[in-house]
């Protein structure tokens, strides 16, 4: 296969359906010659992910619940057996009780705080450690975050706190693995209508607000994120690590509502 990712093999975690950000990234990587493996959680998603992977000629699809170390170990044992080594991973996974993704952050329960941090933050560290053990210099890792880590966004609540911790993890992991020539970065994506996003209160309003007030006066697509992921996962970004790269039509630079934006 020819292309920027020719000869490179990587794991994509977090495809739920064809709207998933992970799927947009997978398509961009496959178009540049990467060989991909996919992980999913639950039988329901297996039925969705297998045909998507097959549609781009990638047969390797494996289960993994990132809340369970044994499940992560089993995934990497299988990858070790199939490939022996890996060049990159994409972690596009987050979870929180959707009843707490509306209303006040202060109402977060201890149980949901733990669960959200475990699935949305610790899982990247757990996966990164196993992946690094299979990587050579030039290996790359990518996770997905959101502006709610930096500023208060309506309804994002405990997920914003988790994303702040995830972004800090990216910096610590970049230091841990940098001496081995392995790079770790994050994309802070603007809002995109996906399964996970549908759990966030007033999501349509948030999308519309971004469309009216971002410098590009639009929202971003899975394709926009896919192209930037290609840069961060490929040798094009060889000098970049520990970075949180915004792919949000510029929304994060704006200080107030655009003057041409109507009241909504
Ligand atoms: P999505 O629903 O398509 O993907 C979320 C994935 O997380 C699903 O595939 C789901 O199966 C997986 N997941 C949840 N719990 C899991 C577990 N225990 N083990 C393994 N997998 C598990 O939604 P998405 O919007 O594509 O989300 C991908 C990432 O992008 C998330 O980290 C999300 O926070 C982030 N993000 C999304 C947006 C947005 O607006 N959609 C913006 C910025 C960042």
Automatic annotation (TrEMBL):
Xref: CDD domains: ENR_SDR
Superkingdom of source: Bacteria
Record-linked InterPro entries: Enoyl-ACP_Rdtase_NADH, NAD(P)-bd_dom_sf, SDR_fam
Coiled coil: none
Residues holding NAD(+): 14, 20-21, 65-66, 93, 163, 192-196
NCBIfam families assigned: PRK08159.1
Designated name of the protein: Enoyl-[acyl-carrier-protein] reductase [NADH]
The species this protein was found in: Paracoccus suum
């Amino acid at each position: 296969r020819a292309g920027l990712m020719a000869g490179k093999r990587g794991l994509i975690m977090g495809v739920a359906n064809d709207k998933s950000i992970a799927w947009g990234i997978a398509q961009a990587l496959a178009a540049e010659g990467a060989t991909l493996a996919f992980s999913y959680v639950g039988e329901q998603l297996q039925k969705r992910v297998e045909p998507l992977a097959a549609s781009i000629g990638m047969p390797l699809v494996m289960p993994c619940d990132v809340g369970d170390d044994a499940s992560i170990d089993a995934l990497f044992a299988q990858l070790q057996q199939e490939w022996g080594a890996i060049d990159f991973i994409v972690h596009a996974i987050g979870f929180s009780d959707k009843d707490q993704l509306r209303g006040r952050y202060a109402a977060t329960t201890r149980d949901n705080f733990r669960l959200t941090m475990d699935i949305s933050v610790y899982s990247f560290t757990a996966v990164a450690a196993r992946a690094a053990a299979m990587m050579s210099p030039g290996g790359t890792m990518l996770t997905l975050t959101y502006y709610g880590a930096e500023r208060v966004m309506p309804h994002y609540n405990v997920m914003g706190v988790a994303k702040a911790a995830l972004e800090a993890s990216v910096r610590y992991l970049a230091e841990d693995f940098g001496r081995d020539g392995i790079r770790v970065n994050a994309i802070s994506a603007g809002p995109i209508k996906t399964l996970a996003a549908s759990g966030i209160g007033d999501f349509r309003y948030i999308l519309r607000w971004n469309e009216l007030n971002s410098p590009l006066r639009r929202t971003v697509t899975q394709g926009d994120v896919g192209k930037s992921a290609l840069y961060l996962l490929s040798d094009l970004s060889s000098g970049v690590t520990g970075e949180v790269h915004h792919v949000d039509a510029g929304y994060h630079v704006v200080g107030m509502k655009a003057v041409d934006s109507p009241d909504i």
